[in-house]
Specification:
Number of strands: 4
Number of domains: 1
Structural class: mainly alpha
Shape: globular
CATH topology: yeast vps74-n-term truncation variant fold
CATH class: Mainly Alpha
Strand content: 5-15%
Radius of gyration: 18 Å
CATH architecture: Orthogonal Bundle
Helix content: 55-70%
Largest sheet: 2 strands, antiparallel
Length: about 260
């Protein structure tokens, strides 16, 4: 299960089959690949530039493609890499198709609406529950790992936390205040042998700082990219994307299953 798959499952409204915050989600899915590479100790962040630590193939096509792209560039910035990566609802549909191939979802295309996420029927609620449980650990202040916190950072960047914890301001606050993964580095150092502790701390800190910076910078990019696209749609159509089928913000009256 990748970060992108968990993101899509959490964004899915089981009763209606629609995807919440799809306009923002398509950007987060592009960056989720970077988060997975950082968690695998393949990349890190330094002064907002992505540095490849290990260019060897991972065995996952999506990760290998991103890693090859990053290796071909000289420490690209997060913003430049995100902008140079294809976007659109096709990204959301790609992850929906992956989950359908795994037997987690059944998909139905919109008639006459190609530029929109497909409708999804959830076949494996346990998979979605497991993804939500990862965010719950962070939102409720329970013990969580680096991957859980990275996913929570992406969830916040998409605005999905306000749907998950609509009636829990404290939970939303815990997620929004995610800033550092120092405790991950401390844990790695304490669990390593004494002679390896210093090296473990350096490596863990580099990776955890990279993930923290990735999610923080992603939040900024999401706000910037979405604002541009959203404003452009209003200028061109005279209305906002959320009035065309309810695929954007949950303020649309077309959303169900909240």
């Amino acid at each position: 299960m990748t970060s992108g798959e968990d993101l899509v499952l959490i964004a899915l409204v089981p009763r209606s089959g629609r995807i919440r915050e799809a306009d923002r989600l398509k950007y987060a899915l592009r960056a989720s690949v970077l988060v997975d590479l950082a968690l695998a100790h393949r990349i890190t962040m330094n002064a907002n530039r992505i540095k490849v630590l290990d260019a060897a193939r991972t065995g996952d096509g999506r990760l290998d493609s991103a890693l090859a792209s990053l290796s071909a560039n000289s420490a690209p910035t997060l913003g430049s890499w995100i902008k140079d990566t294809p976007a659109g609802f096709g990204m959301v549909n790609r992850y929906l198709s992956i989950l359908a191939d795994q037997g987690v979802l059944h998909l139905e295309r919109h008639r006459g609406r190609l530029a929109a996420p497909m409708l999804a029927t959830l076949l494996d609620p346990a998979r979605r529950d497991a993804a939500v449980a990862r965010i719950n650990r962070v939102a409720r202040g329970r013990e969580s790992d680096d991957a859980d916190r990275a996913l929570a950072g992406l969830i916040h960047a998409c605005g999905l936390d306000r749907h998950l914890y609509r009636f829990s301001p404290l939970a939303r606050m815990r997620i929004s205040r995610l800033r550092s993964y120092q405790e991950v580095a401390d844990s790695a150092a304490s669990s390593a042998a004494v002679e390896e502790a210093a090296v473990a701390q350096i490596v863990a800190q580099a990776v955890s700082d990279g993930i923290a910076q990735l999610t923080a910078e992603l939040g900024k990019l999401l706000r910037y990219e979405y604002r541009i696209e959203h404003t452009g749609a209003i200028d061109h159509h005279g209305t906002s994307p959320s009035h065309h089928g309810g695929y954007g913000d949950s303020g649309s009256g077309h959303h169900h299953g909240h």
